[in-house]
């Protein structure tokens, strides 16, 4: 299988903290992505009620689009619940919402990510233990549903732990579960990792999905990242999964989505 391209989209009422090009009815965004030539669409969701599964499956069948990823950052951004919250009820609510999106992922044959949903470490609290407990429950459910979880390193300005690929790889290996992988994002890597290309080489066995955006979160080509070098390293490491464009809708949504695919296609 060769590398494929996806576009991250969200429902029309999603917060601006969902870094997506299209905020619209999911079926509209899917049709746009298909017309632009994307292979798949990543769904950035708050809860499972936002997805009309029969309608999404119908469009998948009509267009050939895949749904490679369900992303979960909106749970954290919209509700504040997370896996390390001091309040046990809020940790449990985070898991309940996450399990709902895992069911969506299972129906669509998707992976599911954990980025900001893991929360932050709080001084004086056993937050890392809360995180591990939540992850163990999530991984148990992943076995039941057959869904792989992709843990995303997120930069220090958004959350305060598992900021780089090294830290994330260490905890993935300590949890030691076949359905737990890594989801690097070159926007975060540009801030936190000494070498984007080096990380793809070093952690090739863990990388299951990749987010692309330029250094300013605009479409590739609008910042300073060297995507030819990055993609060459990805390909040389043996990666053959999805690259998903998680970008801001600037200068305007359709143009951003088109520029993104045109820039990346020429390198893959």
Write the layout of secondary structure elements.
Blueprint (H helix, E strand, L loop, with lengths): L3 E7 L11 E2 L2 H11 L3 E5 L8 H11 L5 E3 L1 H7 L8 H21 L2 E4 L12 H19 L3 E3 L13 H11 L4 E3 L3 H7 L3 H7 L7 E3 L14 H10 L5 E4 L7 H13 L3
Parallel strand pairs: 1-2, 1-3, 1-9, 3-4, 4-5, 5-6, 6-7, 8-9
Helix pairs in contact: 1-2, 4-5, 8-9
Pfam family, one: AP_endonuc_2
Protein name: Sugar phosphate isomerase/epimerase
InterPro entries: Sugar_Epim/Isomerase (IPR050417), Xyl_isomerase-like_sf (IPR036237), Xyl_isomerase-like_TIM-brl (IPR013022)
Folded structure, characterized:
- One of its GO terms (molecular function) is isomerase activity.
- InterPro entries: Sugar_Epim/Isomerase, Xyl_isomerase-like_sf, Xyl_isomerase-like_TIM-brl.
- This protein is of the alpha/beta class.
- It has one domain (4-265): TIM Barrel (Alpha-Beta Barrel).
- It is 44% helix and 13% strand.
- The protein has ten helices and nine strands.
- It has helices at residues 26-36, 53-63, 73-79, 88-108, 127-145, 165-175, 186-192, 196-202, 227-236, 253-265; strands at 4-10, 22-23, 40-44, 69-71, 111-114, 149-151, 180-182, 210-212, 242-245.
- Strands 1, 2, 3, 4, 5, 6, 7, 8 and 9 form a nine-stranded parallel β-sheet that branches.
- Strand 8, helix 9 (227-236) and strand 9 form a beta-alpha-beta unit.
- Helix 4 packs parallel to helix 5.
- The longest helix has 21 residues, at 88-108.
- The two termini are 12 Å apart.
- The mean pLDDT is 97.
Brief account:
This protein is of the alpha/beta class and 268 residues long.
């Amino acid at each position: 299988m060769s590398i494929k391209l996806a576009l991250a989209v969200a429902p029309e009422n999603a917060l601006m903290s969902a870094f997506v090009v299209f905020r619209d009815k999911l079926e509209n965004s899917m049709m746009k992505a298909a017309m632009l030539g994307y292979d798949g669409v990543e769904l950035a969701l708050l809860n499972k009620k936002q997805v009309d599964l029969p309608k999404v499956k119908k469009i998948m069948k009509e267009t050939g689009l895949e749904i490679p990823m369900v992303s979960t950052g909106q749970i954290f951004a919209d509700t504040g619940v997370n896996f390390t919250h001091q309040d046990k009820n809020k940790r449990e609510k985070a898991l309940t919402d996450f399990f709902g999106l895992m069911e969506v992922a299972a129906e669509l044959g998707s992976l599911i990510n954990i980025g900001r949903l893991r929360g932050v470490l709080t001084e004086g609290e056993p937050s890392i233990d809360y995180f591990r407990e939540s992850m163990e429950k999530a991984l148990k459910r992943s076995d039941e549903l057959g869904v792989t979880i992709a843990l995303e390193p997120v930069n220090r300005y958004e959350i305060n732990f598992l900021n780089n690929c090294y830290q994330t790889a260490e905890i993935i290996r300590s949890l030691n579960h076949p359905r737990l992988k890594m989801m690097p994002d070159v926007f975060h890597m540009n801030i936190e990792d000494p070498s984007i290309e080096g990380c793809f080489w070093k952690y090739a066995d863990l990388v299951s999905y990749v987010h692309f955006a330029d250094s300013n979160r605009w479409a590739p080509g609008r910042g300073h990242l060297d995507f030819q070098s990055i993609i060459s390293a990805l390909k040389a490491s043996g990666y053959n999964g999805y690259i998903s464009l998680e970008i801001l809708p600037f200068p305007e949504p359709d143009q951003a989505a088109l520029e993104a695919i045109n820039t990346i296609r020429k390198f893959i």
